[in-house]
Specification:
- The chain has 15 helices and two strands.
- It has helices at about 10-25, 30-50, 65-80, 90-105, 120-145, 150-160, 165-170, 175-205, 210-220, 225-230, 235-255, 255-275, 290-300, 330-350, 355-384; strands at about 310-315, 320-325.
- A hairpin with an 8-residue loop joins strand 1 and strand 2 (about 320-325).
- Helix 2 (about 30-50) packs across helix 4, helix 4 (about 90-105) runs antiparallel to helix 14 and helix 5 (about 120-145) packs antiparallel against helix 6.
Length: about 375
């Protein structure tokens, strides 16, 4: 017996079942991927605060960031359990939608007034060092036969502020998840190496506390690593640590303009080498909207729009009476940090370690070279 459509009863049944399966596949829940990212974020935070090196130094600092730990945990899970298709919708949401939100919120921790606390020659040195490191890393990457996008991400991460600079720059150079993961792993590893070596080199070179602090702020990759190394000066760790923090925060403050310049140069070069180049480069579209909002949050913080308040709670409060300080800028910035950590867990869940077999060795060699370059440029500045 056939239907008017010409299909038999069994064929119609098969078609209905197929349509139901197709409909279900389109409604795959995002919750599994989201929950896995949350769990990995919490696990990374727990590991980060384990009370022994390398997670916690004797000064109580945590130089191995939660971002790197979340990335490594995600990569481990992805490669130990190859079947992760059910996690993809939630992971895509975290990486592609929530990550920009995290970067925006992170801007609430920046204060442009910190730039006024460093001398003009240090600010100029920061700009020269960023340009020199990014350009030299790109050139060395070409000599090593690496892709220019990975080379740029390693250069930016080394020159400015590690993982945050990488995830902010990736969209303007069309970086994919594997390149982001490999560059973050490389830059964080080299930052830890620099953190451990700088106190020894500072003592060997007999650097003053101010010179050593500026050197750390100019040359070490991530902020926790700068703090750990800066306060480790053998004679005056307090002065060195404070100077290194100010210089490092100034480096972070130029992230937005640096992303725009890199995006513009990358777009112009891509236009020149394209088979059918476009006539114009639309510079207004080179800087992602979230970077502009990131700078906007920093401006609001600088102008004092994020208040600090003290809540005076009575004995009726469920946690008991007392005074509780609320810093809105700190709260927003910490929220952004948590979101970025979760997004890096998602990047790890997207990363297949097999891709590291071809690019891993070259990437770490390039990261080491970039670290040496920025250390030498920093030394040259404090020697002048």
């Amino acid at each position: 017996m056939t239907w008017k459509s010409g299909l038999s009863r069994s064929e119609r049944k098969f078609e209905r079942q197929f349509r139901r399966k197709l409909a279900v596949s389109k409604r795959v829940s995002r919750w599994p991927g989201l929950l896995v990212c949350v769990v990995l974020t919490g696990l990374a935070a727990w590991l980060n605060h384990l009370p022994y090196p390398p997670f916690t130094t004797s000064d109580g600092l945590h130089p191995v960031s939660e971002v790197l730990l979340a990335l490594l945990l995600g990569m481990a899970l992805r490669n130990l359990f190859r079947s992760s298709a059910g996690l993809k919708p939630g992971v895509d949401l975290v990486v592609r939608k929530l990550l920009p939100v995290g970067i925006i919120l992170l801007g609430a921790r920046l204060d442009f007034y910190t730039m006024l606390q460093v001398s003009l020659d240090v600010l100029l040195a920061i700009l020269v060092i960023i340009a020199g490191v990014v350009a030299s890393t790109w050139l060395l990457g070409r000599l090593l036969g690496m892709g220019e996008r990975l080379s740029l991400l390693i250069g930016v991460g080394t020159a400015i502020c590690g993982s945050s600079a990488i995830v902010a720059t990736a969209p303007v150079v069309d970086g994919d998840e594997t390149e982001v993961a490999l560059s973050i792993a490389t830059v964080n590893l080299m930052g830890v190496v620099a953190m451990l070596l700088f106190p020894l080199l500072g003592a060997l070179l007999e650097l003053t506390a101010s010179g050593y602090g500026i050197w750390c702020g100019l040359s070490i990759h991530a902020t926790p690593q700068v703090l750990a190394a800066g306060f480790a000066h053998q004679l005056n760790g307090q002065l060195a640590g404070e100077l290194s923090t100010i210089v490092k925060l100034t480096r972070i403050s130029v992230l937005g303009p640096a992303v725009f310049v890199i995006g513009a140069l990358y777009a112009r070069r891509r236009r020149r080498v394209a088979s059918f180049p476009r006539r114009t480069v639309h510079y207004g579209k080179l800087l992602p909207g979230f970077v502009l909002l990131f700078l906007g949050m920093a401006l609001l913080r600088t102008l004092g729009f994020f208040p600090e308040a003290t809540l005076h709670l009575t004995d009726r409060f469920i946690l008991g009476p007392g005074d509780y300080r609320v810093d809105l800028a700190l709260l927003l910035g910490s929220s952004g940090r948590w979101i970025i950590t979760g997004a890096m867990a998602g990047v790890g869940l997207m990363t297949d370690l097999q891709t590291f077999r071809t690019g891993g060795t070259k990437a770490f060699s390039l990261g080491l070279a970039a670290t040496i370059v920025i250390a030498l440029l920093g030394l040259a500045k404090i020697s002048l």
